[in-house]
Each structure stands twice: as C-alpha cells, then as structure tokens.
Amino acid sequence: MPTLRTPSSWQPFVTGLVYFITAAFAVMTSRFGGGLAFIWISNAFLMAELLTTPTRYWWKAILACSIASAMATGLFGLGPTAALPMVLVNLAESMMVVAICRSQSREQTFVGSLRPLFIFILALTVIANPIAGLAAAFVASSVTTVPFWHSWLQWYSGHVLGAMTFTPILVQLLRGEWRQWLKSTPNLAKFEVIGLLALFAFITAQVFFIARYPLLFLPMLPLVVISFRAGHMGAAIAIVLLALIGGTATAMGFGPIARIDVSHGTHVQFFQFYLAISFLLSMPVAADLSGRKRLFQMLSDSEARFRILADNSGDMVFNISAGGIIQYASPSAKEFMNIGPDGLVDMPLEEIVLSADRAVVANALRRAIKHPGSVQMVEFRPLHVVNGVSWWEMAVRAILNEHATAIGVVCTIRDMSRHKAVQQELQIAANVDGLTGAATRRAFLQRLEAEIQDLAAGGKACVALIDVDHFKSVNDQHGHGAGDQALRALVACMRKGLRQIDMIGRLGGEEFAILLPQTDLSQAGLICERLRAAVEDMAIAIDNGRSIHITFSAGLVETEGSDDAASVIDAADKALYNAKRSGRNCLRLAA
Known about the structure:
Layout: H1 11-29, H2 42-51, H3 58-76, H4 80-104, H5 114-143, H6 148-175, H7 177-184, H8 187-210, H9 220-251, H10 255-258, H11 264-312, E1 316-321, E2 326-329, H12 333-337, H13 341-344, H14 358-370, E3 376-380, E4 392-400, E5 406-415, H15 417-431, H16 441-454, E6 461-468, H17 471-478, H18 480-496, E7 503-508, E8 511-517, H19 521-537, E9 540-541, E10 547-548, E11 552-559, H20 565-581, E12 587-589
Parallel strand pairs: 11-12
Antiparallel strand pairs: 1-2, 1-5, 3-4, 4-5, 6-8, 6-11, 7-8, 9-10
Helix pairs in contact: 1-2, 1-3, 2-4, 2-6, 3-4, 4-5, 5-6, 6-9, 6-11, 8-9, 9-11, 17-18
Subcellular location: Cell membrane
GO molecular function: diguanylate cyclase activity
Membrane topology: Multi-pass membrane protein
C-alpha cells in the first residue's frame, strides 16, 4: 500500500503557483455570464497535495493556495470584496473531502482501489461540494447579477467535474506511481499501452475535429480496452488525452458538443459532464482490476510459499474439499503411507483413518468449516501402520472463497507415535505404583468415585482396606529390601485370588485397598478371608536365602451410590482399626 510522502521545501510554492495559474485561467476564460467559473480544476491540486502528505505539512500548502485563490479571485474574478470569502469556501470544500477520505479509508490511494475511489466521489459530490456551493452561491449572487441557484449550479458542475476528473490523476503523479509503473512494466506491455493510447487519441481527434455525426460514444470502446489492458495508469492517461483533445476542440467550436444550439458555457459544462462520465466508466473498472491484480499477486505469492513449504515439510499437507475428498497431498505422504500424492488425490480422507476414529476426524473437519479462522486439532490412528507410525495429529483450518464462505480445509498431519508412547508411559507412571504394580492412590480413588456413580443406578460394591501387620519389624530385622520384596509378594498373591474387574491400590506405605465391584458384603468377606489365608501361608524368599512370613489386617465396607470415596475409605479405616485392636491378622466389617 502506498505511504504518505514527505514534500520538498519548494513543493507548497509549486502547488500555490499551479493553483493560481489554473484559477486565473478558469475565471478569465469560463465566467460566461459574469458569474462563477464554469471550469475549475484548481482545488484538485490542493486536494491531491493534502491527500498525499502528512498533516504537519498541510499548513504550507493551505497558505500557498489561499494566497493564490485570493489573488485569482481579486484580480480576475469576482473582485477584492469576494476574495476572502471565496478563499474560505474553496478551503472548506477541499478540507471536507480530504477529512472524509482520510477518516473512512485506510488505503492511501484512489485509482488503485475501488472503495477509496468511491469514498472520494461520494465525499465530493454528495457532501463537500453541495455544502460549499451554498456559500459560494451566496457570495456570487451578492456581488453579481447571477441568481443564487444558477450560481450554485455553476459552482457544482465546475468544481465536481474538475476535481473528480483530475484529483485521482494528480494523486498518482505526486506519489510517483507513474514513474514506478514505467520502471516495473515490461517493454512489450509499454508498447501495447502506447499503441492503445495512440489509437484512442486518433479516434478522439476524429470524433471531435473531423466527424460530421455525434459519435461521442466511439472513444468509449478503446477507453474500456485501455482500462482492462493498461490498468488505472493507462486509464488516467486516456482521460488526460480526452480532456486535452476534446476540450481544445470544444473551446475552438469544433466537435459534436460545440454543434449543440446552446450557450458556450453550456458547451463547457456538457463537455465536463462527458469527461466525468468517461472517468466514471474507466477509473472504477481500472481500480477494481488493479485490486484483483494485487489480490492475484498475493495469492500467487501465497501459493508459492505454500508449495515450497508443503513440498519440503516433514509433515503431510492436505487440501480437502468440504465433502471430505483429498484434493492435494504433499510429497511427504509417500513416507507416511507408502502411497504417492497422485494416489491420494480424489480419495475420501476417511479411507486412510482407522474406522474407530473416523467420527472424531469428521467432526474436526465440520468444526473447521463451521468456524472459519479457527484451527481444529485432532488425534487419530491411521488405517495402516507404516514404519511404526501408529498415531497422527492433524491441524485443520478452513479455506474461504471470495464470499468468505468455507469451501474446504487445509490440514497438516504429523507423526505423534513417540509422543503418544511417552504420554502412555507417563499415564502408567501416574496410575501404577512403581514398586508393587498396584494402582496408585489417585488412580484407585478415581476408579472408586466412578464405581460409586455407577451404583446410583443400582447394584453393590465393597472396599477392603488392608494394612500389613508389624511391617516396621520386617524392615528393622531384614532391611528395607526385604520389606519391598514382601510388598511385591503381597500384591502378587492377592491378585491371584481376584477377578479381572477387581482392583488393588496402594494408598501409601504398607497400606492397600481392594475394590470389589458387583459384590455384596457376604461375598466380599469370603474373598477377603481367602486372601488373608493365602498371604498367611505364603513364604517370601529374601536375598540372604531365608524366607519370611507376613500377615495383614483388613477392614471391609459395603458402598452405595449415595456415598463418596472419602467416606467409604474412612469407614473401612475404622473397621481396619478394630481389626488391629482385635489382635491383627483378621477381618472386621464396618459398622
């Protein structure tokens, strides 16, 4: 996007000088009937200067153009009395247009973009010029014999048509866009533009100087062609050629406009109207085409970046239609799947996903399309494991069309098998006691809470809290290594006497808990007694070749759906305390 320029120290003087020359020429040659000038392009220079420079430089241009306006009006126009009021009116018109354009559009250009151009036209024709025209008509009707509304129409037509035609062209010139266009355009394209402009000038000269019939429509065809082929630069040059050739012919009394049986002032107004229509026909088209060209260039750059990243990425990159069909696959797919990109195109994405995970992948695609701009993450398993890759992670984002509607998704897929393995190891470490292989306290309590919630629909379950008798003496007499062996042997022995649905957890030290789902208190008591007897009869070999025996005390409680894990453990703990007070190596039921 073009940026604001820093004017040279002499730029305001040049702007003021050009303003004075154009203003003096306008009031000397186009004040038909003694009123306001029918032609006025001077404000176009001030608007172009203000639109292309930072606000801190404005005062210089405003001062220079104010002096120029006062001199032109006082010396050649309405006279010294009207000089100051007309200065204020001209400045007000220019400042209103510039203020609206600056506030409503962040783009610092007109002819290269459609929206700023329309903002400028609306600000000029609907707001600034009609308001300023009221003040100008009041001044003119006060010092001349021209009626108020006739003066207003003279002002409106002259200022609107002049500023609308020349301001965007001057903005281009001041920004150096024409110089950039000459540098960046290939020679062949330049020759094409020169040829089109020469044809346009020839046709325009024929229409205004030679043709006997009113063929004003004839230059429109090459003008449109120029707009399409040469963009806004070519269209701007064509408008200037039309103004010079047609304006000269009309002023000299030649051409279809001059042959209309009206006053000379009306001829000038009509030609300006024709010039403005030509501008409105070509410039918006050229601006829209320039915007599309910039968009195409941005898309081409983006496509090039995407391709080089996708083709050299270790991750797979897919383009997928809204219906779930693969439209593009990056070369890395060969490494992941032993299938080349060509073999994946037109294949449904679900055909490379394990059937159990297809629903979560489809949901991720739907969420991405439903919420454009968001990135959806999903983990899934491939249908076929290649090179040990058993888990994939996919990031999905919607692709939008020109109407901001999602038409598909782009996604990246990476191998996360190693991450998944580490995650599983961490999960095991968090849920399994490293010494005994029993569940950790956290895992046991989570399972107990889940079991209690299931009991709300009916059923029974029991929990036994177990503590090894005199475990401290085992450590003291035989060492902590023997104590560890005893705990491992305890868990292994009890696990042999339990079902698949049962669970052993180590709550801490030598304290363990057993969850017995789908079991009432009498059945649980039998199981616990059987376990107690098995442990009592077990001989545990220790490192010094000797063997030791251990026993345990247990408290048993039956749980219901109205309980919680803490209350169940607390009740079992009280029963365990009663077992220890009863001489240990026994089972007691909770009260």
